[in-house]
Amino acid sequence: MTSPSLVWFRDDLRLADNPALRAAIDRGEPVIALYVLDEESPGIRPLGGAARWWLHHSLASLDERLRERGGALVLRRGAAGHVVREAVADVGAGAVFWNRRYGGAEREIDSSLKSALRAEGLEVASFAASLLHEPRTVTTGSGTHYSVFTPFWRACLALPAPRAPLPEPRTVDGPDHVPASDALDDWDLLPTRPDWAGGLRDTWEPGEPAARRRLTEFLAHDLPSYDRARDEPAAGATSLLSPRLRWGEISPFTVWHEAVGVDGAGGFLSELGWREFAWHTLYHSPDLATRNLRREFDAFPWPPLDPAHLEAWQHGETGVPLVDAGMRELWHTGYMHNRVRMVVASFLVKNLLIDWRLGEEWFWDTLVDADEANNPFNWQWVAGSGADAAPYFRVFNPELQAKKFDPQGLYISQWASEAPTEPIVDLGETRKAALAAYDEVKRAPRAPS
Question: At 324, which CATH number?
C-alpha cells in the first residue's frame, strides 16, 4: 500500500530548482501537489488585487506543467494548518515537504504544523529555496543581525557560494486518483466588476516558462547595459524579474548562477542582495509593514490626512509629471520602474506629508511583485524610518529626477501626456515643511525599542 508524498506549494510556483518537489519525487511514492489559499490564519496578510490576478495565472500554468508530467495540482482554501492536515488524512500521505517561508506568521504556522505531523509519525522536511542565504545564517561578528546593506552584502559574499540549482523533473508521478480540489475559477482571483486587468494582460505572461524566457532575454540583451541604463525608466534595461521571484516562478539560485559569470553583472547581483536584505530585515522585524523600524519615527508629527491629496497621488493627478507617469504606469501594468518608485514614495511622504503606511498599502494592492518583505522595507527606506534608510532630509525632487533620468521626456510622454500640469503642492515649500517635521523627530525623547 502506497503512502503518497504531499508537496505543499507556496511562493515557489515552479518545477525547476524546487527542493521540496525533488525530495518528494526521490522518495519514490506518488506525489500530490497542494496549494492552499490561506486568508484565514492569524497574521496572514490577504493578497492585493494585482497579486491575486498574477496568482490565478501562475497556478494555472503550474497545473498545466504538472499534468504534462503525470501529476496535477490540488487547490484548497482555508487556514493552512488545518487544510494541510486534512489533505494528509484524505490521501494517507506518509511524508510532507515544503520550501521555507520567512514571515513571522508563516514561520509560526509551519513550525506548528511540522511538530504536529511528526507527532503523527509522518516524515516532514522543509528546504531553502527562495533566498540565497537564510536570514539566520547571516550575522555580524557579535551574532546580531545587520541593519546596513553594504556590510550585510559583504558578509553574504564571504559565505560559501549559493548552491547550484536543481534540474527540472521530467516526470511527476501522481496518484491513481487525484484528491478533491477546488476549481481555480471559483476562487474569484480575477477582477470582473469591473475588469481592470486589461493592462496587466497586455504586459505580463505569468508562469514558469515565461520567467525562464525573460531571464534568458535579460542576460543576452539587457544585462550588458544594466549598470548604465537601469535608472532610466524609458530605457527598458531592468530585468522585470521581480514578480517572477516574488511568486517563485524562477529561483534566485537559477538567476545567480546564470548571471554571475556575465561581464558587468555585479550591479544586478547586488539587487538580488537588496532583496535578500529586505527578507533578512523582515525575519527579525515581522511587523515591518505596520511599525517604524527606527522607533524614533513614532514621534513624527503627521498632519491630518488630506484625502484629496492621497487620491490625486493614487490616480496620477498630482500635476507633477514624473510622479503622475509612475502612478499611471502602476495602475495600467501592476508595475513601476524602481527609480520612479523612489520618487513617487518620496513625494507622498515628504511633499504631501502622508504616512508611508498608506503608500505601502496602495502598492500592496496594485503591484504584481509586492511581497511582505520588499514592499514595506522599501517604503521605510524612502521614508527614513527603516534599515539603512535614506536620510529623511533627502527629498527626491521629481523635477530634477526627470531631467536627469528622463531627459527627453519619453517615459513621461508615454504615461502622463494627459496628466494635469499644475502641481497640487509647491515642491519647495513642502520640502521645508517636511524638514521642519523631521526636526521634531530629532528633538523628541528616544522611544524604547
Answer: 1.10.579.10
Q: Which residue has the cell 494582460?
A: 201
**Residue positions annotated with a catalytic role:** 271, 274, 302, 338, 356, 379
Report the alpha-carbon distance of residue 225 to residue 231 in Å, rounded. Answer: 11
Residues spanned by the domain of 300: 295-443
Query: Is residue 90 a part of any domain in this protein?
Result: yes
Task: Give the CA angle between residues 42, 40, 122 to the nearest 5°.
Answer: 85
Residues 344 and 371 in one domain: yes
267 plus 315 within the same structural domain: no
Residue 438, φ and ψ in degrees, nearest 5 = -65, -35
Distance (Å, rounded) from C-alpha 336 to C-alpha 369? 10
Q: Report the alpha-carbon distance of residue 423 to residue 403 in Å, rounded.
A: 17
Answer yes or no: are the C-beta atoms of 326 and 340 closer than 8 Å: yes
264 & 146 share domain: yes
> Which tens digits make up the pLDDT trace of 277-302?
999 999 999 999 999 999 999 999 99
Per-residue pLDDT tens for 378-410?
999 999 999 987 777 789 999 999 999 999 999
Please say if the pLDDT value at position 1 is more than 70.
no
How many structural domains compose the chain? 3
Residues 89 and 139 in one domain: no
What is the distance between the alpha carbons of residues 324 and 2, in angstroms, rounded to a whole number?
59
Question: Which residue's C-alpha cell is 497586455?
Answer: 202
CATH number at residue 260: 1.25.40.80
CA distance 363 to 380: 13
- Is 135 a residue whose pLDDT tops 80? yes
Q: In this structure, are 158 and 251 located in the same domain?
A: yes
**Same domain as 373, residue 316:** yes
Q: For the residues of 304-355, what is the DSSP string, one character each?
A: PP-HHHHHHHHTT-SS-HHHHHHHHHHHHHS---HHHHHHHHHIIIIIS---
Among 125, 41, 114, which residue's Cα sits nearest to residue 77?
Answer: 41
* pLDDT given at position 447: 54
372 and 396 in a common domain:
yes
